[in-house]
Amino acid sequence: MSGLWQSLAVGAPEVILAAGAMVLLLIGVFRGDRSLVGLSWGAVVLFALAGASLIDDGPGRVLAWNGLYVADALSAFLKVVILIGAAVSVLLALPYLKRTRTARFEYPVLIVLATLGMGIMVSANNLLTLYIGLELMSLSAYVLAAFHRQEVKSAEAGLKYFVLGALSSGVLLYGVSLVYGFAGTTAFQGIGAALTGTRSIGALVGLTFVLAGLAFKISAVPFHMWTPDVYEGAPTPVAAFFASAPKVAAMGLLLRVAMDAFGGMVADWRQVVIFMAIASMLLGAVAAIGQSNVKRLLAYSSINNVGFALIGLAAATPAGISAVLFYMAVYLVMTLGSFLCVLALTDADGRAVETLDDLAGLVRTRPWLATALALFMFSLAGIPPLFGFMPKLAVFNAAVAANLWPLAVIGVLASVVGAYYYLRVVKILFFDAPAGVVVTGGSRLNGAMLAAAAVFCSPAGYLLLGPLGVATRRAAASLF
Protein backbone atom coordinates (compact mmCIF):
# COMPACT_ATOMS: atom_id res chain seq x y z
CA MET A 1 0.00 0.00 0.00
CA SER A 2 2.92 2.32 0.58
CA GLY A 3 3.62 2.29 -3.17
CA LEU A 4 -0.03 3.15 -3.89
CA TRP A 5 -0.07 6.03 -1.43
CA GLN A 6 3.21 7.34 -2.84
CA SER A 7 1.80 7.23 -6.36
CA LEU A 8 -1.34 9.04 -5.21
CA ALA A 9 0.79 11.71 -3.56
CA VAL A 10 3.06 12.18 -6.58
CA GLY A 11 0.07 12.25 -8.96
CA ALA A 12 -1.97 14.52 -6.68
CA PRO A 13 -2.71 17.15 -9.37
CA GLU A 14 -4.35 14.57 -11.61
CA VAL A 15 -6.14 12.89 -8.68
CA ILE A 16 -7.61 16.26 -7.65
CA LEU A 17 -8.73 17.06 -11.20
CA ALA A 18 -10.25 13.61 -11.77
CA ALA A 19 -12.19 13.59 -8.49
CA GLY A 20 -13.19 17.23 -8.92
CA ALA A 21 -14.45 16.64 -12.46
CA MET A 22 -16.76 13.88 -11.21
CA VAL A 23 -18.10 16.13 -8.44
CA LEU A 24 -18.69 19.02 -10.86
CA LEU A 25 -20.43 16.68 -13.28
CA LEU A 26 -22.79 15.36 -10.60
CA ILE A 27 -23.63 18.89 -9.45
CA GLY A 28 -24.32 19.90 -13.04
CA VAL A 29 -26.55 16.87 -13.65
CA PHE A 30 -28.69 17.58 -10.58
CA ARG A 31 -28.79 21.38 -10.75
CA GLY A 32 -28.75 21.88 -14.51
CA ASP A 33 -27.44 24.81 -16.50
CA ARG A 34 -28.15 27.35 -13.75
CA SER A 35 -25.06 25.97 -12.00
CA LEU A 36 -22.71 27.15 -14.78
CA VAL A 37 -21.23 30.11 -12.88
CA GLY A 38 -20.70 28.08 -9.71
CA LEU A 39 -19.17 25.18 -11.65
CA SER A 40 -16.84 27.57 -13.49
CA TRP A 41 -15.51 29.02 -10.25
CA GLY A 42 -15.37 25.48 -8.83
CA ALA A 43 -13.17 24.50 -11.78
CA VAL A 44 -10.87 27.46 -11.04
CA VAL A 45 -10.62 26.28 -7.41
CA LEU A 46 -9.72 22.79 -8.65
CA PHE A 47 -6.96 24.26 -10.83
CA ALA A 48 -5.63 26.22 -7.85
CA LEU A 49 -5.63 23.11 -5.64
CA ALA A 50 -3.92 21.08 -8.36
CA GLY A 51 -1.27 23.75 -8.71
CA ALA A 52 -0.72 23.91 -4.95
CA SER A 53 -0.27 20.12 -4.81
CA LEU A 54 2.59 20.04 -7.30
CA ILE A 55 5.66 18.35 -5.84
CA ASP A 56 8.79 20.40 -6.45
CA ASP A 57 11.79 18.11 -6.59
CA GLY A 58 14.05 20.47 -8.51
CA PRO A 59 15.81 18.84 -11.45
CA GLY A 60 15.30 15.39 -9.92
CA ARG A 61 12.67 12.89 -11.01
CA VAL A 62 10.08 10.99 -8.97
CA LEU A 63 8.44 7.98 -10.64
CA ALA A 64 4.94 6.75 -9.79
CA TRP A 65 2.43 4.15 -10.96
CA ASN A 66 5.12 1.57 -11.71
CA GLY A 67 7.17 3.99 -13.77
CA LEU A 68 4.32 5.07 -16.05
CA TYR A 69 4.24 8.58 -14.55
CA VAL A 70 7.05 10.99 -13.77
CA ALA A 71 7.04 14.16 -11.67
CA ASP A 72 9.96 16.51 -12.21
CA ALA A 73 10.71 20.19 -12.70
CA LEU A 74 9.63 20.00 -16.36
CA SER A 75 6.18 18.59 -15.59
CA ALA A 76 5.73 21.04 -12.69
CA PHE A 77 6.51 24.07 -14.85
CA LEU A 78 4.29 22.92 -17.70
CA LYS A 79 1.40 22.12 -15.36
CA VAL A 80 1.52 25.56 -13.79
CA VAL A 81 1.32 27.17 -17.24
CA ILE A 82 -1.44 24.77 -18.35
CA LEU A 83 -3.51 25.35 -15.21
CA ILE A 84 -3.27 29.12 -15.64
CA GLY A 85 -4.37 28.83 -19.26
CA ALA A 86 -7.26 26.51 -18.37
CA ALA A 87 -8.47 28.77 -15.54
CA VAL A 88 -8.49 31.84 -17.80
CA SER A 89 -10.26 29.83 -20.54
CA VAL A 90 -13.05 28.88 -18.12
CA LEU A 91 -13.61 32.41 -16.82
CA LEU A 92 -13.42 34.29 -20.11
CA ALA A 93 -16.21 32.12 -21.53
CA LEU A 94 -18.89 33.11 -19.00
CA PRO A 95 -20.07 36.39 -20.65
CA TYR A 96 -19.94 34.77 -24.10
CA LEU A 97 -21.98 31.71 -23.12
CA LYS A 98 -24.65 33.88 -21.51
CA ARG A 99 -24.79 36.25 -24.47
CA THR A 100 -25.13 33.42 -27.02
CA ARG A 101 -27.67 31.51 -24.88
CA THR A 102 -25.43 28.43 -24.73
CA ALA A 103 -24.74 28.58 -20.99
CA ARG A 104 -24.57 24.82 -20.43
CA PHE A 105 -22.90 23.32 -17.38
CA GLU A 106 -20.82 20.88 -19.44
CA TYR A 107 -18.35 23.58 -20.52
CA PRO A 108 -16.23 23.84 -17.32
CA VAL A 109 -16.44 20.06 -16.81
CA LEU A 110 -15.01 19.44 -20.26
CA ILE A 111 -12.23 21.96 -19.64
CA VAL A 112 -11.33 20.17 -16.38
CA LEU A 113 -11.26 16.77 -18.12
CA ALA A 114 -9.12 18.18 -20.94
CA THR A 115 -6.74 19.65 -18.35
CA LEU A 116 -6.56 16.26 -16.63
CA GLY A 117 -5.47 14.76 -19.94
CA MET A 118 -2.87 17.48 -20.40
CA GLY A 119 -1.46 16.80 -16.93
CA ILE A 120 -1.07 13.12 -17.78
CA MET A 121 0.56 14.05 -21.09
CA VAL A 122 3.34 16.17 -19.62
CA SER A 123 4.05 13.57 -16.90
CA ALA A 124 4.00 10.60 -19.28
CA ASN A 125 6.99 8.29 -18.94
CA ASN A 126 5.63 5.62 -21.25
CA LEU A 127 4.16 5.62 -24.74
CA LEU A 128 0.91 4.13 -23.41
CA THR A 129 0.54 6.84 -20.75
CA LEU A 130 1.25 9.37 -23.48
CA TYR A 131 -1.61 8.00 -25.57
CA ILE A 132 -4.10 7.89 -22.69
CA GLY A 133 -3.44 11.52 -21.76
CA LEU A 134 -3.53 12.64 -25.39
CA GLU A 135 -6.86 10.94 -26.07
CA LEU A 136 -8.46 12.25 -22.87
CA MET A 137 -7.55 15.77 -23.90
CA SER A 138 -8.59 15.22 -27.51
CA LEU A 139 -12.00 13.67 -26.77
CA SER A 140 -12.91 16.64 -24.59
CA ALA A 141 -11.64 19.01 -27.29
CA TYR A 142 -13.81 17.41 -29.99
CA VAL A 143 -16.94 18.06 -27.93
CA LEU A 144 -15.85 21.61 -27.12
CA ALA A 145 -15.28 22.41 -30.80
CA ALA A 146 -18.90 21.47 -31.56
CA PHE A 147 -20.30 23.10 -28.40
CA HIS A 148 -22.67 25.28 -30.45
CA ARG A 149 -24.20 22.18 -32.00
CA GLN A 150 -27.09 24.14 -33.55
CA GLU A 151 -24.65 26.19 -35.64
CA VAL A 152 -23.39 24.67 -38.86
CA LYS A 153 -19.89 26.15 -38.49
CA SER A 154 -19.43 24.77 -34.98
CA ALA A 155 -20.73 21.31 -35.88
CA GLU A 156 -18.48 21.29 -38.95
CA ALA A 157 -15.47 22.33 -36.84
CA GLY A 158 -16.13 19.52 -34.35
CA LEU A 159 -16.53 16.91 -37.08
CA LYS A 160 -13.46 18.08 -38.97
CA TYR A 161 -11.37 18.10 -35.79
CA PHE A 162 -12.64 14.63 -34.83
CA VAL A 163 -11.93 13.02 -38.22
CA LEU A 164 -8.45 14.49 -38.56
CA GLY A 165 -7.73 13.85 -34.88
CA ALA A 166 -8.69 10.20 -35.29
CA LEU A 167 -6.34 9.99 -38.27
CA SER A 168 -3.49 11.48 -36.26
CA SER A 169 -4.18 9.06 -33.39
CA GLY A 170 -3.95 6.16 -35.82
CA VAL A 171 -0.65 7.48 -37.16
CA LEU A 172 0.67 7.89 -33.61
CA LEU A 173 -0.39 4.38 -32.57
CA TYR A 174 1.22 2.87 -35.67
CA GLY A 175 4.45 4.64 -34.78
CA VAL A 176 4.17 3.42 -31.17
CA SER A 177 3.74 -0.17 -32.36
CA LEU A 178 6.80 0.08 -34.60
CA VAL A 179 8.92 1.60 -31.83
CA TYR A 180 7.78 -1.13 -29.44
CA GLY A 181 8.62 -3.80 -32.00
CA PHE A 182 12.19 -2.60 -32.41
CA ALA A 183 12.88 -1.41 -28.86
CA GLY A 184 11.02 -4.14 -26.99
CA THR A 185 9.51 -1.68 -24.51
CA THR A 186 7.20 1.32 -24.34
CA ALA A 187 9.01 2.99 -21.41
CA PHE A 188 10.89 6.13 -22.42
CA GLN A 189 14.13 5.21 -20.67
CA GLY A 190 14.00 1.68 -22.12
CA ILE A 191 13.46 3.04 -25.62
CA GLY A 192 16.34 5.45 -25.18
CA ALA A 193 18.67 2.68 -24.05
CA ALA A 194 17.59 0.28 -26.81
CA LEU A 195 17.82 2.73 -29.71
CA THR A 196 20.93 4.71 -28.75
CA GLY A 197 23.71 4.09 -31.23
CA THR A 198 21.51 2.09 -33.63
CA ARG A 199 20.13 3.06 -37.03
CA SER A 200 17.27 0.62 -37.50
CA ILE A 201 15.11 1.63 -40.45
CA GLY A 202 12.02 0.31 -38.67
CA ALA A 203 12.75 2.38 -35.58
CA LEU A 204 13.29 5.48 -37.74
CA VAL A 205 9.94 4.94 -39.45
CA GLY A 206 8.29 4.49 -36.06
CA LEU A 207 9.94 7.68 -34.78
CA THR A 208 8.70 9.57 -37.83
CA PHE A 209 5.12 8.41 -37.30
CA VAL A 210 5.23 9.32 -33.60
CA LEU A 211 6.49 12.80 -34.45
CA ALA A 212 3.79 13.17 -37.09
CA GLY A 213 1.07 12.28 -34.59
CA LEU A 214 2.40 14.79 -32.05
CA ALA A 215 2.91 17.46 -34.73
CA PHE A 216 -0.84 17.38 -35.39
CA LYS A 217 -1.52 18.43 -31.80
CA ILE A 218 0.80 21.43 -32.00
CA SER A 219 -0.48 22.44 -35.47
CA ALA A 220 2.95 22.16 -37.08
CA VAL A 221 3.12 22.13 -40.88
CA PRO A 222 2.27 19.87 -42.72
CA PHE A 223 -0.20 18.69 -40.06
CA HIS A 224 -1.80 22.09 -39.57
CA MET A 225 -4.75 21.79 -41.96
CA TRP A 226 -7.40 21.58 -39.25
CA THR A 227 -6.36 24.67 -37.34
CA PRO A 228 -7.79 27.66 -39.30
CA ASP A 229 -11.19 26.01 -39.93
CA VAL A 230 -11.58 24.73 -36.36
CA TYR A 231 -10.55 28.07 -34.83
CA GLU A 232 -13.02 29.95 -37.03
CA GLY A 233 -15.93 27.53 -36.55
CA ALA A 234 -15.53 26.76 -32.85
CA PRO A 235 -16.93 29.17 -30.24
CA THR A 236 -14.42 31.94 -29.56
CA PRO A 237 -13.67 30.85 -25.93
CA VAL A 238 -13.01 27.33 -27.21
CA ALA A 239 -10.65 28.65 -29.89
CA ALA A 240 -8.85 30.61 -27.15
CA PHE A 241 -8.50 27.40 -25.14
CA PHE A 242 -7.24 25.40 -28.15
CA ALA A 243 -4.62 28.06 -28.92
CA SER A 244 -3.24 28.14 -25.38
CA ALA A 245 -3.13 25.31 -22.83
CA PRO A 246 -3.38 22.27 -25.18
CA LYS A 247 -0.65 23.70 -27.37
CA VAL A 248 1.66 24.12 -24.35
CA ALA A 249 0.89 20.55 -23.23
CA ALA A 250 1.52 19.07 -26.67
CA MET A 251 4.80 20.96 -27.02
CA GLY A 252 5.89 19.79 -23.56
CA LEU A 253 5.03 16.21 -24.50
CA LEU A 254 7.03 16.55 -27.71
CA LEU A 255 10.04 17.78 -25.72
CA ARG A 256 9.85 14.83 -23.34
CA VAL A 257 9.43 12.24 -26.11
CA ALA A 258 12.25 13.71 -28.20
CA MET A 259 14.76 14.08 -25.37
CA ASP A 260 13.76 11.19 -23.07
CA ALA A 261 12.71 8.42 -25.43
CA PHE A 262 14.70 9.38 -28.54
CA GLY A 263 17.54 11.36 -26.99
CA GLY A 264 20.05 9.01 -28.62
CA MET A 265 18.62 9.70 -32.08
CA VAL A 266 18.92 13.48 -32.14
CA ALA A 267 20.63 13.50 -35.52
CA ASP A 268 17.68 11.58 -37.00
CA TRP A 269 14.71 13.53 -35.62
CA ARG A 270 16.44 16.92 -35.82
CA GLN A 271 15.97 16.92 -39.61
CA VAL A 272 12.22 16.38 -39.22
CA VAL A 273 11.95 19.11 -36.58
CA ILE A 274 13.94 21.59 -38.69
CA PHE A 275 11.63 20.97 -41.64
CA MET A 276 8.51 21.45 -39.50
CA ALA A 277 9.99 24.62 -37.98
CA ILE A 278 10.83 26.23 -41.32
CA ALA A 279 7.57 25.18 -42.98
CA SER A 280 5.47 26.38 -40.00
CA MET A 281 7.24 29.74 -39.81
CA LEU A 282 6.92 30.44 -43.51
CA LEU A 283 3.40 29.14 -44.10
CA GLY A 284 2.09 30.78 -40.93
CA ALA A 285 3.58 34.10 -41.99
CA VAL A 286 2.51 34.02 -45.65
CA ALA A 287 -0.96 32.44 -45.28
CA ALA A 288 -2.02 34.94 -42.61
CA ILE A 289 -1.51 37.90 -44.95
CA GLY A 290 -4.71 37.32 -46.91
CA GLN A 291 -6.97 36.55 -43.93
CA SER A 292 -9.98 38.77 -43.23
CA ASN A 293 -11.26 36.90 -40.15
CA VAL A 294 -9.49 37.68 -36.87
CA LYS A 295 -9.79 34.11 -35.56
CA ARG A 296 -8.32 32.62 -38.73
CA LEU A 297 -5.50 35.16 -38.54
CA LEU A 298 -4.77 34.09 -34.96
CA ALA A 299 -4.85 30.45 -36.11
CA TYR A 300 -2.09 31.09 -38.63
CA SER A 301 -0.30 33.14 -35.98
CA SER A 302 -0.30 30.07 -33.71
CA ILE A 303 1.17 27.95 -36.53
CA ASN A 304 3.82 30.60 -37.09
CA ASN A 305 4.74 30.74 -33.40
CA VAL A 306 4.97 26.95 -33.12
CA GLY A 307 7.59 27.10 -35.87
CA PHE A 308 9.68 29.53 -33.82
CA ALA A 309 9.37 27.35 -30.71
CA LEU A 310 10.54 24.30 -32.66
CA ILE A 311 13.83 26.09 -33.37
CA GLY A 312 14.73 25.57 -29.70
CA LEU A 313 13.88 21.87 -29.90
CA ALA A 314 16.04 21.50 -33.02
CA ALA A 315 19.00 22.79 -31.00
CA ALA A 316 18.48 19.84 -28.59
CA THR A 317 20.51 21.56 -25.85
CA PRO A 318 19.54 22.65 -22.33
CA ALA A 319 19.49 26.25 -23.57
CA GLY A 320 17.27 25.27 -26.49
CA ILE A 321 14.75 23.38 -24.34
CA SER A 322 14.71 26.24 -21.84
CA ALA A 323 14.02 28.67 -24.71
CA VAL A 324 11.08 26.54 -25.90
CA LEU A 325 9.53 26.54 -22.43
CA PHE A 326 10.05 30.29 -22.11
CA TYR A 327 8.53 30.81 -25.55
CA MET A 328 5.42 28.75 -24.80
CA ALA A 329 4.80 30.49 -21.46
CA VAL A 330 4.92 33.96 -23.04
CA TYR A 331 3.00 32.77 -26.11
CA LEU A 332 0.14 31.55 -23.90
CA VAL A 333 -0.33 35.00 -22.36
CA MET A 334 -0.07 36.82 -25.70
CA THR A 335 -2.61 34.50 -27.33
CA LEU A 336 -5.10 34.60 -24.47
CA GLY A 337 -4.82 38.39 -24.44
CA SER A 338 -5.56 38.53 -28.18
CA PHE A 339 -8.62 36.30 -27.80
CA LEU A 340 -9.84 38.36 -24.85
CA CYS A 341 -9.81 41.35 -27.20
CA VAL A 342 -11.78 39.37 -29.79
CA LEU A 343 -14.33 38.37 -27.14
CA ALA A 344 -14.81 42.02 -26.22
CA LEU A 345 -15.73 42.85 -29.83
CA THR A 346 -19.52 42.72 -30.13
CA ASP A 347 -21.87 45.02 -32.00
CA ALA A 348 -24.89 46.86 -30.63
CA ASP A 349 -27.05 43.73 -31.11
CA GLY A 350 -24.62 41.49 -29.22
CA ARG A 351 -23.30 39.72 -32.31
CA ALA A 352 -19.59 38.90 -32.50
CA VAL A 353 -17.38 41.22 -34.56
CA GLU A 354 -14.72 39.02 -36.11
CA THR A 355 -13.71 40.55 -39.45
CA LEU A 356 -10.82 42.96 -39.79
CA ASP A 357 -12.88 45.39 -41.86
CA ASP A 358 -15.31 45.83 -38.96
CA LEU A 359 -12.40 46.86 -36.72
CA ALA A 360 -11.47 49.83 -38.89
CA GLY A 361 -10.93 52.94 -36.79
CA LEU A 362 -11.64 51.12 -33.52
CA VAL A 363 -9.28 53.49 -31.71
CA ARG A 364 -11.85 56.28 -32.10
CA THR A 365 -14.60 54.41 -30.24
CA ARG A 366 -12.73 52.00 -27.97
CA PRO A 367 -9.20 53.44 -27.57
CA TRP A 368 -8.13 51.22 -24.69
CA LEU A 369 -9.27 48.03 -26.40
CA ALA A 370 -7.60 49.04 -29.67
CA THR A 371 -4.38 49.88 -27.80
CA ALA A 372 -4.39 46.52 -26.01
CA LEU A 373 -4.97 44.59 -29.25
CA ALA A 374 -2.17 46.56 -30.93
CA LEU A 375 0.13 45.75 -28.02
CA PHE A 376 -0.56 42.02 -28.41
CA MET A 377 0.01 42.22 -32.17
CA PHE A 378 3.36 43.98 -31.68
CA SER A 379 4.33 41.46 -29.01
CA LEU A 380 3.38 38.47 -31.19
CA ALA A 381 5.48 39.99 -33.96
CA GLY A 382 8.43 40.09 -31.55
CA ILE A 383 9.01 43.82 -31.80
CA PRO A 384 11.18 45.25 -28.98
CA PRO A 385 10.89 46.50 -26.32
CA LEU A 386 7.74 44.43 -25.79
CA PHE A 387 8.14 41.18 -23.87
CA GLY A 388 7.32 39.04 -26.92
CA PHE A 389 10.74 39.92 -28.31
CA MET A 390 12.60 37.96 -25.64
CA PRO A 391 11.37 34.41 -26.46
CA LYS A 392 12.32 34.80 -30.11
CA LEU A 393 15.72 36.10 -29.13
CA ALA A 394 16.15 33.10 -26.80
CA VAL A 395 15.38 30.47 -29.47
CA PHE A 396 17.58 32.24 -32.03
CA ASN A 397 20.48 32.37 -29.55
CA ALA A 398 20.04 28.67 -28.77
CA ALA A 399 20.09 27.80 -32.48
CA VAL A 400 23.24 29.85 -33.09
CA ALA A 401 24.96 28.26 -30.08
CA ALA A 402 24.11 24.82 -31.48
CA ASN A 403 25.66 25.81 -34.84
CA LEU A 404 22.24 25.98 -36.51
CA TRP A 405 22.72 29.57 -37.60
CA PRO A 406 21.03 29.06 -41.03
CA LEU A 407 17.85 28.07 -39.15
CA ALA A 408 18.15 31.20 -37.01
CA VAL A 409 18.57 33.35 -40.14
CA ILE A 410 15.44 31.82 -41.70
CA GLY A 411 13.62 32.49 -38.42
CA VAL A 412 14.62 36.17 -38.49
CA LEU A 413 13.44 36.49 -42.11
CA ALA A 414 10.15 34.76 -41.24
CA SER A 415 9.72 37.23 -38.38
CA VAL A 416 10.02 40.12 -40.81
CA VAL A 417 7.43 38.59 -43.14
CA GLY A 418 5.10 37.77 -40.26
CA ALA A 419 5.37 41.29 -38.90
CA TYR A 420 3.49 42.51 -41.98
CA TYR A 421 0.12 41.01 -41.07
CA TYR A 422 0.45 42.01 -37.42
CA LEU A 423 1.21 45.58 -38.45
CA ARG A 424 -1.68 45.43 -40.91
CA VAL A 425 -4.06 44.83 -38.00
CA VAL A 426 -2.59 47.82 -36.17
CA LYS A 427 -2.94 49.98 -39.28
CA ILE A 428 -6.63 49.01 -39.59
CA LEU A 429 -7.26 49.79 -35.92
CA PHE A 430 -5.56 53.17 -35.88
CA PHE A 431 -5.45 54.64 -39.40
CA ASP A 432 -8.42 53.33 -41.42
CA ALA A 433 -11.71 55.21 -41.60
CA PRO A 434 -14.26 53.92 -39.08
CA ALA A 435 -16.43 51.11 -40.45
CA GLY A 436 -19.55 52.35 -38.70
CA VAL A 437 -19.84 49.24 -36.52
CA VAL A 438 -20.63 50.14 -32.92
CA VAL A 439 -18.43 47.98 -30.72
CA THR A 440 -19.80 47.48 -27.22
CA GLY A 441 -17.91 46.60 -24.03
CA GLY A 442 -17.13 43.31 -22.31
CA SER A 443 -17.30 42.08 -18.73
CA ARG A 444 -15.24 43.54 -15.90
CA LEU A 445 -13.58 40.20 -15.17
CA ASN A 446 -12.48 39.81 -18.77
CA GLY A 447 -11.31 43.41 -18.73
CA ALA A 448 -9.18 42.75 -15.66
CA MET A 449 -7.62 39.64 -17.24
CA LEU A 450 -7.03 41.59 -20.45
CA ALA A 451 -5.27 44.36 -18.53
CA ALA A 452 -3.08 41.82 -16.70
CA ALA A 453 -2.09 40.18 -20.00
CA ALA A 454 -1.31 43.58 -21.52
CA VAL A 455 0.96 44.49 -18.59
CA PHE A 456 2.72 41.12 -18.91
CA CYS A 457 3.40 41.68 -22.62
CA SER A 458 4.55 45.27 -22.12
CA PRO A 459 8.11 46.21 -21.08
CA ALA A 460 6.93 45.65 -17.47
CA GLY A 461 7.10 41.94 -18.28
CA TYR A 462 10.90 42.15 -18.12
CA LEU A 463 10.53 42.14 -14.33
CA LEU A 464 9.56 38.47 -14.65
CA LEU A 465 12.53 37.63 -16.84
CA GLY A 466 14.65 36.43 -13.90
CA PRO A 467 12.09 34.11 -12.25
CA LEU A 468 10.96 32.73 -15.61
CA GLY A 469 14.57 32.10 -16.65
CA VAL A 470 15.32 30.21 -13.44
CA ALA A 471 12.16 28.11 -13.75
CA THR A 472 12.71 27.21 -17.41
CA ARG A 473 16.39 26.33 -16.90
CA ARG A 474 15.52 24.03 -13.99
CA ALA A 475 12.76 22.42 -16.05
CA ALA A 476 15.07 21.90 -19.02
CA ALA A 477 17.80 20.45 -16.80
CA SER A 478 15.46 17.60 -15.79
CA LEU A 479 15.70 16.21 -19.34
CA PHE A 480 19.51 16.04 -19.34
From TrEMBL:
<dbReference type="InterPro" id="IPR001750">
    <property type="entry name" value="ND/Mrp_TM"/>
</dbReference>
<dbReference type="GO" id="GO:0048038">
    <property type="term" value="F:quinone binding"/>
</dbReference>
<feature type="transmembrane region" description="Helical">
    <location>
        <begin position="36"/>
        <end position="55"/>
    </location>
</feature>
<dbReference type="GO" id="GO:0005886">
    <property type="term" value="C:plasma membrane"/>
</dbReference>
<feature type="domain" description="NADH:quinone oxidoreductase/Mrp antiporter transmembrane">
    <location>
        <begin position="124"/>
        <end position="417"/>
    </location>
</feature>
<feature type="transmembrane region" description="Helical">
    <location>
        <begin position="6"/>
        <end position="29"/>
    </location>
</feature>
<keyword id="KW-1133">Transmembrane helix</keyword>
<feature type="transmembrane region" description="Helical">
    <location>
        <begin position="159"/>
        <end position="183"/>
    </location>
</feature>
<dbReference type="InterPro" id="IPR010096">
    <property type="entry name" value="NADH-Q_OxRdtase_suN/2"/>
</dbReference>
<keyword id="KW-0813">Transport</keyword>
<feature type="transmembrane region" description="Helical">
    <location>
        <begin position="367"/>
        <end position="390"/>
    </location>
</feature>
<feature type="transmembrane region" description="Helical">
    <location>
        <begin position="444"/>
        <end position="465"/>
    </location>
</feature>
<feature type="transmembrane region" description="Helical">
    <location>
        <begin position="67"/>
        <end position="93"/>
    </location>
</feature>
<dbReference type="GO" id="GO:0042773">
    <property type="term" value="P:ATP synthesis coupled electron transport"/>
</dbReference>
<feature type="transmembrane region" description="Helical">
    <location>
        <begin position="402"/>
        <end position="423"/>
    </location>
</feature>
<dbReference type="Pfam" id="PF00361">
    <property type="entry name" value="Proton_antipo_M"/>
</dbReference>
<keyword id="KW-1003">Cell membrane</keyword>
<feature type="transmembrane region" description="Helical">
    <location>
        <begin position="203"/>
        <end position="226"/>
    </location>
</feature>
<keyword id="KW-0472">Membrane</keyword>
<feature type="transmembrane region" description="Helical">
    <location>
        <begin position="105"/>
        <end position="122"/>
    </location>
</feature>
<keyword id="KW-0812">Transmembrane</keyword>
<keyword id="KW-1278">Translocase</keyword>
<dbReference type="GO" id="GO:0050136">
    <property type="term" value="F:NADH dehydrogenase (quinone) (non-electrogenic) activity"/>
</dbReference>
<comment type="subunit">
    <text>NDH-1 is composed of 14 different subunits. Subunits NuoA, H, J, K, L, M, N constitute the membrane sector of the complex.</text>
</comment>
<keyword id="KW-0830">Ubiquinone</keyword>
<keyword id="KW-0560">Oxidoreductase</keyword>
<feature type="transmembrane region" description="Helical">
    <location>
        <begin position="271"/>
        <end position="290"/>
    </location>
</feature>
<keyword id="KW-0520">NAD</keyword>
<comment type="similarity">
    <text>Belongs to the complex I subunit 2 family.</text>
</comment>
<feature type="transmembrane region" description="Helical">
    <location>
        <begin position="324"/>
        <end position="346"/>
    </location>
</feature>
<dbReference type="GO" id="GO:0012505">
    <property type="term" value="C:endomembrane system"/>
</dbReference>
<dbReference type="GO" id="GO:0008137">
    <property type="term" value="F:NADH dehydrogenase (ubiquinone) activity"/>
</dbReference>
<feature type="transmembrane region" description="Helical">
    <location>
        <begin position="297"/>
        <end position="318"/>
    </location>
</feature>
<protein>
    <recommendedName>
        <fullName>NADH-quinone oxidoreductase subunit N</fullName>
        <ecNumber>7.1.1.-</ecNumber>
    </recommendedName>
</protein>
<keyword id="KW-0874">Quinone</keyword>
<comment type="function">
    <text>NDH-1 shuttles electrons from NADH, via FMN and iron-sulfur (Fe-S) centers, to quinones in the respiratory chain. The immediate electron acceptor for the enzyme in this species is believed to be ubiquinone. Couples the redox reaction to proton translocation (for every two electrons transferred, four hydrogen ions are translocated across the cytoplasmic membrane), and thus conserves the redox energy in a proton gradient.</text>
</comment>
